[in-house]
Amino acid sequence: MHAMEFYGKRSLSSYMDDERKAINQSPNRAPLRTHQQISEQDLHLSPTRSMMTLMPPPSPESPWTLSPLHTPSPSLLYHCIASLHRHEGNIYSIAVSRGLVFTGSESSRVRVWRQPDCIERGYLKASSGEVRAILGYGNMLFTTHRDNKIRMWNVTNSDSFRSKKVSTLPRRSSLFIFPRASPQKHKDCISCMAYYHAEGLLYTGSWDRTVKAWRVSDKQCVDSFVAHEDNVNAIVVNQEDGCLFTCSSDGSVKVWRRLYVESSHTLTMTLKFQPSPVNALALSLSLNTCFLYSGSSDGFINFWEKEKMSGRFNHGGFLQGHRFAVLCLVAVEKLVFSGSEDTTIRVWRREEGSCYHECLAVLDGHRGPVRCLAACLEMEKVVMGFLVYSASLDQTFKVWRIRVLPDDQKKMCLDESNRSDSLKAKIMEYEMSPVLSPSWVAKKLQSSHFQ
Q1: How far is 220 from 119, CA to CA, in rounded Å?
Q2: How far is residue 430's CA from residue 364's CA, in Å, rounded to a whole number?
Q3: Residue 41, C-beta contacts closer than 8 angstroms, at least 6 positions apart
Q4: C-alpha Rg value of the chain to the nearest Å
Q5: pTM
Q6: Which of 396, 327, 328 is nearest to 365 (CA)?
Q7: Reading across the β-sheet that carries 335-340, which strands appear in turn?
Q8: Beta strands in 288-417 (DSSP E)
Q9: How far apart are CA 7 and CA 233, in angstroms?
Q10: Regarding beta strands 201-206 and 232-237, do their DSSP bridges make them parallel or antiparallel, or are they unpaired?
Q11: What is the pLDDT of residues 198-240, one digit of tens each?
């Protein structure tokens, strides 16, 4: 099925607002349960989860409460270690930096959580409404807001969390007594950010179709250019060579290089294979390889491999598995995590030395489109582990712990799985009937491409 018409011209923000209202008004909304009730059910569903510590109740000031943990897909590779329900609207962005997790939402507060148990450490507050994008690097945190500006923060993760707003981009000029519209300011929602560490450049992409480059050292906008014919939805930068990648609702992925003499950027390549809007990008770098992934509204994840000699990106194929639009992507090591409108998160692994990918797991704990993802590596002895944070339009925020087993252990698990008839039945049941929220199904059935 194709979702490109549904996501073509209509803004994602309006869809999310409608979804939030529909979920709040839904008579089928599951009631919140106590800590003990959740623990008892989870112990019954999955013996391996009995050793995990569920999250303690939030503080009275927090807008978060424990939400029902729905039965996950049977898998030996992952489990959900925390699930929170938010009462202040949808989460638009997640960032992980130095042992902290930051979430931005419809409220003016950026919530701060401790890894991996998600104990709330505090919040950052700006007076400019919803937070659309968050990016962290070292002690710096960048956030974008409803007023189409960027806030820079200095954060400290010690015994007590501390934060201080450093600046607002663009800065207000002291030359004018009366406020005027800044030519450096974006004219529409800033949907995405990327930071080039070596040069201290912050890139921002907007629904006004432009990309801007900000020099963090002196808070100046050093370049601004029209990048696409429609909304800029995602932006990533290669930390090895400064190459910039952007994607848009116009269906294209573009590759840009910076001209250092003029501090401007030039288009070097356009990657376009279908008219479907492209919503997400991820870059996977290793010692000898560079892969670019793009998630689009037709449910496919296209990927390109960089040639070592020419530096060109050759299309390597696509990953097929999601039923509807891919809304977010994260790449860590050889794994790629994809969140979709079909309510699931898929975990893909690329085979060493080839373009072959396999889907290791399908995380189906959400009941609405998965809006944003963040992930980080968590090594434990010989087992490679990951922490994955996800937020959905069902107004829940979940934390997943994923273990990638060595080949010998994985083979034992697969043999055990093949002998389990009940496991096969559950997998078949999932494939035939995904978990979807009633309001989301009703909205999807009313969209044009179902007619």
Answers
A1: 36
A2: 9
A3: 33, 69
A4: 22
A5: 0.77
A6: 396
A7: 326-332, 335-340, 345-350, 357-363
A8: 290-296, 301-306, 313-319, 326-332, 335-340, 345-350, 357-363, 370-380, 383-392, 396-404
A9: 12
A10: unpaired
A11: 999 999 999 999 999 999 999 999 999 999 999 999 999 999 9
